[in-house]
Records
---
Amino acid sequence: MSERKKKPEELRSHRWYGVKDLRSFGHRSRTAQMGFHASDYAGKPVIAILNTWSDINPCHTHFKQRVEEVKRGIWQAGGFPVEMPALSLSEPFQKPTTMLYRNLLAMEAEELLRSYPADGVVLMGGCDKTTPALIMGAIEMNLPTIFMPAGPMLRGDYQGAPLGSGSDSWKYWAELRAGNITEQDWSNVENGIARSPGHCMTMGTASTMTSVTEAMGLTLPGAASIPAPDSRHAQMATLTGKRIVDMVWEDLTIDQILTPAAYDNGVVTALALSGSTNAAVHLIAMARRSGYELDLQRFDELARSTPVLANIRPAGQYLMEDFFYAGGLRALLNHLGAAHLDLDTLTVTSQTLGQSIAGARCWNEDVIRPLNKALQSGDSLAVLRGNLAPDGAIIKPPAAEPHLLVHRGPAVVFEDYNDMSDRIDDPDLDIDANSVIVLREAGPQGAPGMPEWGQLPIPKKILATGVRDMLRISDARMSGTSYGACVLHIAPESHVGGPLALVRSGDIIELDVPQRRLNVLISDEEMAARRAAWTPPKPKFKRGYGTLYLKHVGQADTGCDFDFLARGKEEDGDEPEI
Ligand code: FES
Ligand code: MG
């Protein structure tokens, strides 16, 4: 511990436990009821552990065990651990999409910390939205905060070859549809693709967001790359518990860590990993909670100069297990170095980022490339604008077949997901490999929840000709494990009357990634006439959380946060008295 800045009576939990009144009597007697003696907690930091374990979240199955290891560390360091279960956003199971509930978990995290006697917090997450959601909630409370990443699962195994989460399901599904593999082969993929606890082990949203979180200083150094079942992951959990107690005494709050420079480091890391496009939505939302106006343009600026160093699927060749053995994120950050990162940012260790990556070695330069052998020199993400996306859209150029990055073709429009499912494989559909597949009603309000539908399916009859990529555009997101020439996050979305709502089949759509342009080649007058004739679709919810969501969710370019939550620190109200 560097320096003790707090006395026990200055702890936030002192208001619950330390004062002499009737209510604190209640808190103490009820803690005794749970089997704890006063000496277990008196004068000690109360550490909330927000645990997103659930029987239906396969990525967090080890959290039952890990939380015990976190607690062990907290006890050893002289803290009092309090596990608080929080909404588990389980990517494979939750419908229509976990994104509908990211802000709900963020609210829950914030309110758990506000309403209970937490002096510091360990956030346990990893499966896609859990990471940004927990952090968004914690930002508002501004306690000492440390993130314990779930860690990637082991490589998949298919007849002796590695399988990658997501990416290989799409790939082999297409092969099955094209008749190139058997039902038995497909069943072998099903049983081999996810064979241990942990989050997706491709560079999907989970690996991207946990790595970004580490680069921004919110985890112990090296934490995000350790495979979930590795015994070093359990050790990391214990060390995380130990560290948070000292962070409370040091009063090392999350706002000292998540500075604008840290957010830039986060963006650069996401880009150098060729990470999930979802990082753009989540980092913008997180930054805005911190009171910084991170925007899409910043992603585009940093993308131009950030080399892709991680050779991980879907943009590269390897998986997270290989990345760990090659040296993990510390090695990658060390390669990026001061040329691309601000190494003076503070981390949870109270050391700088530069200190926490100093001496990190790379053991396999094919997996974690040095700067002079980058997979590509820049442009792992591009922000597009034009009359189809006045507030921006994004594409991941390395995931697309290069010939599609400058492309013109006639639109084939689907009104919504069901329309697409019904007609995409219709042998009579007027479409060829040059066409541009357009899906609307897939944005934050339209779908609702902006699901990961953006990797629109290629019609069977075109797959049968050997074509594996086409230009596809929508207001949806795309799973980080997906690939293809998919323009995503079109803002404003079609549901609220964005120009995407006005495109018609046969219109020529023009994409020019080098020029960052996305246009539908119709005149302004024609666009205006179509707008005048447009009627808004019906809202998707009439009651419950859904109505709150529809009323308050923002568009993709601002991070899809709720308007009443996305605000800067200067507007913070006082915490209500307990
Ligand atoms: Fe949980 Fe992919 S399903 S991270
Ligand atoms: Mg995902």
---
Amino acid sequence: MEQQRIRNFCIIAHIDHGKSTLADRFLEITGTVRPGEMKEQFLDQMDLERERGITIKGKAVTMKHRTPDGVDYQLNLIDTPGHVDFSYEVSRALAACEGALLVVDATQGVEAQTIANTLLALQYDMEMIPVINKVDLPSAEPERVAAEMEQFFGFRRDEVMFVSAKSGIGMQELLNCIVERVPAPKGAADKPFRALVFDSTYDSYKGIIAYVRVADGSMSKHDRLQVMSSGRSVEVIEVGVFSPEPTPIDVLNAGQVGYVATGFKDVQECAVGDTLTNQSNPSTEPLPGYVELKSMVFAGLYPADGEDYTRLRAALEKLKLNDASLSIEPENSGALGFGFRCGFLGLMHLEIVQERLEREYDLALIVTAPSVAYEVLLTNGEVMRVDNPSRLPSPTTISEIREPILGITIVTPNSSGLGDAEQARVVMEYTMPLAEMLADFYNQLKSRTQGYASLDYTFEGYRAAPLVRVDILVNQTPVEALSIISHRDNAVVHGRTLVEKLRSAIPRQMFEVPIQASIGTRIVARETVRAMRKDVLAKCYGGDITRKRKLLEKQKEGKKRMKMVGRVEVPQEAFLSLLKIG
Ligand code: GTP
């Protein structure tokens, strides 16, 4: 396909505004997928994604579209994830397109993520097509939403496309509009080959499959491919496009979106954001890549059953193959045994990883309270990164602790008369510590606005704050995994909350168990789990041995998800209940 007839575009939308449905309808209308084959939400391949209705990894699909004047075009749709945790993935997809459909639900209107993603897209200087979806619904207010799009982004009313991804209204017009408004890719066919890796998967036969957007030149099977960042080279096993299944083709040309099977075994050998070139005629200038997003949220993941450690490690390594933003580091906690300190992009990312481990790998896990990474300036002038509260060095060596700060955007209905009273919705901008966001902020925001507010955030940098470490002791034994770093003013309250929650979650033992919170050597809170009056076996003494065994077995069942802390059995729920320190 000639470059002038290629269009690369993506869809950006707030969650549930209909991105996947729109993609499905495109696939159907362009005949890319025959109606009988249509699985709902083709682009969301992972089960978990389909169930949760969110899109996690960017993917691509190639479609053919014939315009009313009979000309065939190749449309490459690159999928973008909708959730705030994944804005890194959104920016990868954006770098590979010339156009974006900005989809807004006609019954809802502009949301925080719409704003955040639009701002991101504008940085890439791309053609934006405003699309109002779900116009088939009786509660749709397309005119109000069009006015909002004008107000927030400056789109003209006559630029807005009105569609129903469900019923198909306006879909042909939208395809024609993409051909008309989105510019053809600019790359030069006669320059040395350059392609941007925007995603990758692993295939046990073909190795790492790099999803690429070709900027210049072309690449065929058997060409020698070179990774620009490392200089490593390899013979190309296969090139192809997604239509929507991976389909081998002879040659990938400038402007096209497709894949290159590299045979590499390790994702690091051909990382997302890298530029691929041709070894025999290499380009000298790599394409602008992406800013690598560092993990922002950290938590310890431990197998509930210590014997599952090796399985947990294998599972995490496998997940990491497809998820470069997940970081893993072995960790050994006195209380919890062997596990991993993992880094995530946000809470949602953490939840998804946990759920996949439990479901796909059948692992029972204990997840410690999530924390953020701090920058610690030591008195000797060194700066260290601390992503685990228990690793905070001694206070005497610390000159200052800096914490990650977010810039957040909230969009909410204007029920409280904020700002211009005429406006139906208000946009609020704040800065706040990331750690506060972890402490149930999102749930609170949702419940206080009856679910109407939407939220997005960007990382703004580190800022010094009066922070201290609060330790938790169960039966005089410090549980490192439960240590938290807290603002000095809130430390005692946080400590008390933790201790109270733990007290109510730990069942009575044979002996009295003190639960304490301390800052340094100072105990700031204490609760006691009182001793049990009778033990389970007491009534069986001298009795029937089989009955005794049965009881013990029952107990074992219940203990599956227990951890020994010192001599105390702590159920997994005790740890989980601490995830939500409000
Ligand atoms: P994420 O993948 O979570 O980002 O969601 P999404 O934006 O892909 O939304 P999705 O396509 O899953 O649509 C959300 C819901 O809206 C689904 O129940 C769809 O059936 C419904 N929906 C999407 N488009 C339309 C439409 O045009 N009309 C109507 N009535 N419902 C629609």
